[in-house]
Amino acid sequence: MSMTSRILAISLGGTIALSIKDGKAVPTDGADQLVNAAASHQADIKWSTHQFLNKDSVDITLCDLARLCVYINSKSAKYSGFIISTGTDTLEEVSYFLHEAFGRRLNIIVTGAMRPPYSKDFDGNLNFNFATSTCLSHINQNRGVFVAISEHVISAINVAKKSSVRLDSFAPVYGDDVHSSAALQCSQDERAFKLLLSDTSAFDDIKIPIIAVSIGTTFDTLVLNDVDGCVISCPGAFSLPNLIIPKLQELVVHIPIVLASRCIHNEPVPDDIYPGYLTRQEDLGFLIRDYARLSPQQSRIKLAFAILRTRQANTLT
Prior knowledge:
By secondary structure, the chain is α/β, with parallel strands linked by helices. It is built from ten helices and 13 strands. The mean pLDDT is 88.
């Protein structure tokens, strides 16, 4: 006889939960509908649902996600797995934030939909059912935060959205191996989580812009007045135009500046290609290797955790 698993489905809104109201697409309560569609296929699950947010995913804040983590942690002893449904516009950021908070401590699966429920090719139920099967298979192994969508299971640190419209928009950045070194990488999650518990509102106060660098980019340091840090989305191999390096150096003594590549494959440049290049950039004060393989958006989240950990440490000393 199979054992019954307790799974909590948490809805944040997004396309997977849209409906038409007054001629407009708006997010509605989505968790119950998704579970009801999945329940007949998974009889060995005791379901619970919670509508945590009702938002378009671009309107989700870092504070929202911090509160979500605190909520999940409060339920962690009762459930063997969690399924988070959210909008696909920022699904990679939502899943990476959960990864930064929990590392591999819990079984968390994130999913969404590229088409709304009123569309003839709605993919939400299929994705939710796939997320359910993935969550069940991860109960006794493979704990961590994973995206389950379009029949792909991808580590939260290894997922990229490659299309704004295709049903198969999400794919692994570094191949299908969820046990790769990139997939296993995680932050000091215990410290990060204690930070979350201490003051979730701190995430709404932190200011970390992402600035894109491209051909002909100039730079006015005034745009980085009153910020806590900055992520530079660089071309190619973490490259910066010589024209703006001196201006960034004026700032790097006051705020942390991460150099992230805008390329999907975001690995560090080996010395046999550009000898000493990364070392020279880091000697100027820029952060690179600690953020290797992260997108600019993921780097921003990781930097937020790092800054708030430093603040907390300074408060305690």
